[in-house]
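4.2 Preliminary Data

To establish feasibility before requesting continued support, the project team ran the inverse folding procedure on a target of 135 residues. The structure was first converted into the token representation described in Section 3, and no sequence information of any kind was made available to the design step. The complete token record follows.
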């Protein structure tokens, strides 16, 4: 459905003494790709908040196939694959130069009505509108 890509050059402050990215920084790279994806549908975090919904991540999975290294240029792809009752976004990290897959994963987010603090069991109409599913 909705896809995005972002190129990131691995910065020095994300690596250990062996010049390998610490595993916790992968989440940051996924977040950058997720925000790029949400910008495409004009429903990034400021718009979510304005619409009255928070979308916390409730599940996160990353599969590490190859290490990321200092100054490596990576292509982080994000694809929205579920939206009816939750946002599920699949990710893939590839080496920009060779195209080799280095990592993959996904996140799951659910809508929470901020005024009541209640999780919704179906995505709110605003998300469907932003996706062009309803008018």
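Position-by-position output of the design step:
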């Amino acid at each position: 459905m909705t896809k995005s890509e972002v190129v990131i050059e691995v910065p020095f402050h994300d690596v250990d003494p062996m010049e390998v990215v610490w595993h916790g920084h992968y989440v940051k790279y996924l977040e950058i790709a997720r925000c790029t994806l949400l910008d495409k549908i004009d429903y990034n975090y400021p718009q979510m908040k304005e619409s009255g919904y928070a979308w916390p991540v409730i599940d996160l999975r990353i599969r590490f196939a190859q290490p990321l290294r200092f100054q490596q240029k990576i292509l982080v792809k994000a694809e929205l694959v579920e939206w009816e009752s939750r946002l599920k976004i699949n990710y893939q990290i590839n080496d920009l130069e060779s195209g080799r897959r280095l990592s993959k994963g996904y996140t799951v987010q659910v809508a929470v009505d901020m005024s009541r603090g209640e999780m919704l069991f179906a995505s709110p109409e605003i998300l469907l509108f932003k996706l062009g599913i309803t008018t």
